[in-house]
Design brief:
Layout lengths: L1 H14 L23 E4 L11 E3 L52 E2 L9 E5 L9 E8 L6 E4 L12 E4 L11 E8 L1 H6 L7 E5 L7 H5 L4 E2 L7 E7 L8 E9 L4 E5 L11 E7 L4 E7 L12 E5 L3 H11 L2
Parallel strand pairs: 1-2, 10-15
Antiparallel strand pairs: 3-12, 4-5, 4-7, 5-6, 6-9, 7-8, 8-9, 11-12, 11-14, 12-13, 13-16, 14-15
Length: about 325
């Protein structure tokens, strides 16, 4: 049985362009020759044309590239630390530190359980966290109430939803709980016209057993909306073809005045919404989010090149709107 499971996992990783060696900290290598939309939302998200880029086909979608929806059940006072509602009760995670390693520039690596961060997780369209059914990636962003995550706009639909965020997800397990998304906040330019320069979403998660998301995973990453277009960043996301996260250290650059681009291998469907962390400190698991995979081509039409919108005044306004929910 163990050999069968290992063989299946190897096949899945190979199909996603990831070849794992040694104990699982393998380096991501070549991706299949044909472009795979990166609406890096994976098979459960219905990312709209031009491609389901890095969103796997799994999450519900509203018009064009829109997909977000959240059950408007407001969580308790967001000025204090709120927690999130959900299935397995979260216990403080050792991953509140994480030890995500730097990689060879532009080369992705599969993370071992001890390396991955609890501040990064997978998005599922429902609380049934069946392996391989996650369609996007999200990260915890620091807030006074400790209940916010950030992802790509095409991963969710504005409003209420049945989707959940599973921090530290791995191999079908939810070590830090299953957190119900109660509200999704997106820019009207995205929800109305699918403007690729507004492909970002903030989401509120409900409290769980009297604890906030941040108190359960060891805090959140800071948000930077200064319009950074040139930085070394760390990307950690969840390809839908596997149930383990990958990471990559790369150099973000300006693709246009409103978009960023980076070369990092094997960021396939499911990695939409992956945060771009500048100034990443692996010992403290800390950094500033300057973007998320999304934007142009909903994140990119090929696995080895990814895009993000530039985080500026509009993103800051959206964040402040999320704080007011």
């Amino acid at each position: 049985m163990a050999m069968d499971r290992a063989a299946r996992k190897f096949a899945a990783l190979a199909a996603a362009g990831l070849i794992v060696t040694g104990t699982g900290a393998g380096v991501a290598t070549a991706w299949a020759s044909t472009p795979h939309g990166k609406s890096r939302a994976s098979a459960g998200s219905s990312a709209s044309p031009p491609a389901a880029a890095k969103a796997a086909a799994a999450s519900p979608s509203a018009t064009a590239t829109v997909k977000a929806s959240a059950s408007a059940s407001a969580s308790p006072s967001r000025t204090a630390t709120t927690a999130a509602t959900a299935s397995p009760s979260p216990t403080p995670s050792a991953a509140s530190g994480g030890n995500v390693p730097r990689t060879t520039t532009g080369q992705s690596q599969v993370l071992t359980a001890s390396q991955q961060s609890a501040k990064v997780g997978a998005i599922f369209s429902s609380s049934s966290i069946t392996p391989g059914n996650h369609h996007c990636t999200a990260s915890v962003v620091d807030s006074p109430a400790g209940d916010l995550i950030v992802t790509a706009g095409h991963c969710l639909s504005a409003g209420g939803t049945s989707a959940v965020f599973v921090p530290g997800y791995r191999d079908g397990s939810a070590p830090d709980g299953v957190w119900h998304i109660t509200q999704v906040i997106e820019n009207s330019a995205w929800t109305g016209d699918g403007d690729q320069d507004d492909d970002v979403a903030f989401a509120v998660v409900a409290p769980q057993n009297g604890r906030s998301l941040e108190s359960s995973v060891g805090g959140g990453y800071t948000l930077s909306t200064s319009g950074t277009t040139d930085a070394t960043v760390q990307l950690t996301g969840y390809p839908s073809a596997t149930d383990e996260p990958i990471t990559c250290t790369g150099d973000a650059a300006a693709f246009s005045q409103t978009q960023l681009v980076i070369d990092c291998t094997a960021f396939t469907g499911g990695t939409s919404g992956t945060a771009w962390l500048a100034g990443y400190d692996s010992d403290a698991d800390a950094g500033s989010i300057i973007g998320v995979i999304g934007g142009y081509q909903q994140g990119g039409d090929t696995a080895d090149v990814s895009y993000s919108i530039v985080f500026g005044a509009d993103t800051q306004a959206l964040y402040e709107e999320a704080l007011s929910q």
